[in-house]
Design brief:
The protein is α/β, with parallel strands linked by helices. It folds into six domains: 8-84, Orthogonal Bundle (Arc Repressor Mutant, subunit A), CATH 1.10.10.10; 92-156, Arc Repressor Mutant, subunit A; 162-300, PRD domain (PTS-regulatory domain, PRD, Orthogonal Bundle); 316-409, PRD domain (PTS-regulatory domain, PRD), CATH 1.10.1790; 422-505, Rossmann fold, CATH 3.40.50; 536-707, Mannitol-specific EII, Chain A, CATH 3.40.930. The chain is 56% helix and 11% strand. Strand 5 (422-428), helix 21 and strand 6 form a beta-alpha-beta unit. The longest helix is centred in the C-terminal third of the chain and has 32 residues, at 519-550.
């Protein structure tokens, strides 16, 4: 086989085509390589010439895209050849990435001449590249120092360098490749599937350490109080690997002691400590508390929550208010009523809590779909960007986060609530926003495809797949023996048609029964599901009934201080056998306020809430004041409050009851109508309003519970 020169861009196109099993559009290739479609068409002529030597061809389908066709053996040979290529040409972005990687890894200044020789370019080119590199480093608080005769190096904090390293790996290392790297034994893994740039970047992290550390994280994954997204899980593993290597080199994180003392009290710190204990033994090092604090920050920013995020814990209620303000802004700009969309509200709240934490701690985030989201939802992107600036004026929110918010809104805008039919499993690895918008698009585009379960690659288990009629994945499932359809997270028309064709070919219809080998075993599973279903329904209905029967509105005719109002409230609850120790509950409510204002901005309401071991049953009571009281808001401003809302829950309350309390808190701030109800209406009107809303919520939960057993 004769040697053929392959240009850097040709190699990139071939890498993409070899990785994808489905067709790839010219537009997608152009976007990926940041060139025009005309340039791609020109490059394809050279690629077709290269492919002849491997008996491979390009299949071009008008309106759909292009696909590499030929034997797997020849594809593997081409892949190996591409990997072993020693290029004399890199794209400017690749070259700058390699320079940045080298500077971050270096323990002493690098010479411009050495960089120029390594990359086969002039010193002037390297100098221009360094200017671009410095621009990329500013967001991490880092700078490039250049001195004649001395060389070039990166200056800045150890935390900034680690963030830059993590970002570099996660932004340029294909997520699918990384997941495969983790899930497979690295020692047995072939280098054929790693390209040259990726291989250089992986030099920042020791691959053997990566595997060891991933196993340690996996051990405690199920012990966390919440699951974490695949993308965040990858980020955590990369961070830990970098941290171990930097500690071994004598580079440690400096952490604010006061903030560290706060973190030590959290569940995440305990989980981080458990991880580090295992790593200390394996690598024979001592990991200081400052490093554990930094790991804790990653865990706190990595939550992938379900919709049972509770208003009585941490800052969910404050985030809920901001979320409703954002929904109102976007709805007004689009001339749509979005404030009553429960799924949108819940999805945004559970996304925004860790997102705001990440932003405030300058932790950064990657969004591999950002460019496509900006293109496909340009108007919505601009509106949400404006809304975020208005609602969060103190935060500098990166475009990557805006992109995730757009996906939540886009899902709500294109979503429809229809009957279930065909059962589909969607395998994603880019987080909850990606899977949600894909599921919504599938429901919209394909009649009959209504029951959709989202799952991450880590949680994919072969023995559970038989209950699904079709499996749809956004990532190649290596060593997967069953049939599945590979699509992009944004779902192109061609991919939609491919799914329709599959369903038509397999004549899928509603299935009420499945053929099973062990009827008795199937019946046992069914019975357990029925019992669990009934338990959930009972918990929801009991919680709603308890709260609706206990709602009260108390008119206070005398001038009382804030503490006096709370003392009165807690004594009344004691008389109803809801509180065992009113003094302690008052103390907890006051401490809750000191940790963050409880006044609701733009209203005359304040919500005092807590979970306490001194509370025996959930309750919700309103206290109308004769004279308004000045109370600090969640925005650190002051408002005059005329109605104090007191929401209490036992420490050991079940998830469903806590979810109902969370729903009430969401209703309080949903829109002007709900705020007016709480500020002005009678007890009868408020009970009627909450009865209607909670009954609707119960119907939604009932439908969700019933659909799980189908």
């Amino acid at each position: 086989m004769k040697a053929i020169y392959i240009a850097a861009r040709e190699k990139k196109i071939l890498d993409i085509l070899l990785l994808q099993e489905a067709e790839v559009t010219i537009a997608d290739l152009a976007n990926e390589l940041d060139v025009s479609p005309r340039t791609i068409h020109r490059d394809l002529k050279g690629i077709e010439y290269i492919l002849k030597d491997y008996n491979l061809t390009l299949k071009k389908t008008s309106g759909i895209g292009i696909q590499l066709v030929g034997s797997e053996e020849m594809k593997t040979k081409l892949q190996l050849h591409l990997f072993n290529l020693d290029h004399n040409e890199y794209t400017p972005e690749d070259r700058q990435t390699i320079i940045l990687s080298a500077l971050l890894e270096a323990k002493e200044p690098l010479k411009l001449m050495a960089l120029a020789y390594d990359l086969h370019v002039t010193i002037a080119t390297i100098s221009n590249d360094l200017t671009k590199v410095e621009e990329r480093l500013t967001s991490y608080g880092l700078s490039v120092i250049r001195k004649r005769g001395y060389g070039v190096e990166i200056e800045g904090s150890e935390a900034g360098k680690r963030r830059a390293m993590s970002s570099l790996v996660l932004n340029h290392l294909d997520e699918v490749e990384f997941l495969s790297l983790i899930k497979q034994n690295i020692q047995k893994r072939s280098l054929q599937t790693v390209n040259t740039l990726t291989d250089r970047l992986l030099g920042l992290v020791d691959k053997k350490k990566l595997l060891i550390i991933e196993k340690q994280v996996e051990k405690i994954r199920n012990c966390l109080p919440y699951p974490i997204a695949d993308s965040a899980y990858i980020g955590l593993v990369v961070h830990l690997t970098l941290a171990i290597e930097r500690i071994q080199q004598g580079e440690n994180i400096h952490f604010d002691q006061e903030y560290l003392d706060e973190l030590i009290q959290t569940k995440e710190f305990q989980a981080a400590r458990e991880i580090t204990v295992g790593l200390e033994g394996i690598f024979q090092i001592t990991i200081p508390e400052s490093e554990i604090g930094y790991i804790t920050m990653h865990l706190m920013g990595a939550k992938l929550r379900n919709h049972q995020e509770y208003s009585l814990e941490e800052s969910s209620f404050q985030i809920g208010i901001k979320t409703q303000q954002l929904i109102q802004f976007v709805g007004e700009e689009l001339h749509l009523e979005l404030t009553k969309n429960l799924s949108l509200f819940q999805g945004l709240v559970v996304h925004l809590r860790p997102a705001i934490y990440r932003i405030r701690q300058n932790m950064g985030i990657t969004n591999p779909l950002l460019e496509k989201i900006e293109t496909d939802y340009h108007e919505l992107f601009c509106i949400i960007e404006q809304g975020v600036q208005k609602v969060f004026p103190q935060l500098i929110v990166p475009k990557e986060e805006i992109g995730f918010l757009v996906m939540h809104f886009a899902s709500a805008l294109i979503g429809k609530d229809e009957n279930e039919d065909v059962r589909a499993l969607v395998v994603c690895s880019s987080g909850i926003g990606t899977s949600k918008i894909l599921a919504t698009k599938l429901r919209q585009e394909i009649p009959g495809l209504k029951q959709i379960q989202n799952i991450s690659l880590f949680d994919l288990k072969g023995d559970e797949l038989s209950k699904y009629d079709v499996i749809i994945s956004t990532i190649p499932l290596k060593n997967f023996e069953g049939n599945y359809i590979l699509v992009s997270p944004m779902l192109s028309e061609a991919e939609t048609e491919k799914i329709r064709s599959y369903l038509k070919t397999h004549s899928l219809v509603i299935k009420n029964t499945d053929i099973v080998n062990d009827q008795q075993s199937e019946e046992s599973v069914h019975n357990r599901k029925v019992v669990e279903e009934l338990r959930l329904i009972q918990n929801y209905s009991a919680a709603i009934l308890t709260l609706l029967e206990g709602i009260d509105l108390v008119e206070i005719r005398e001038n009382l201080t804030k503490k006096a109002v709370l003392e009165l409230a807690c004594k009344r609850e004691r008389d109803k056998n809801i509180i065992e120790n009113p003094e302690m509950v008052v103390k907890e409510l006051m401490e809750r306020e000191r940790s963050g204002g409880l006044g609701i901005p733009g209203t005359r309401l304040a919500l005092f809430h807590t979970r306490s071991r001194f509370v025996t049953n959930p309750s919700f009571t309103l206290y109308r004041l004769q004279e308004p009281i000045i109370i600090e808001t969640m925005d650190k401003t002051k408002i005059l409050v005329k109605t104090i809302l007191v929401m209490l829950a036992p420490q050991n309350i079940n998830d469903q009851a806590l979810e109902i309390l969370s729903q009430i808190s969401a209703l309080i701030i949903r829109d002007k109508e709900s705020i007016q109800q709480m500020e002005e209406e009678s007890k009868e009107d408020i009970v009627s309003y909450l009865t209607h809303e909670l009954n609707s919520y119960f119907d939604i939960k009932l439908k969700e519970i019933r659909s799980r057993s189908k």
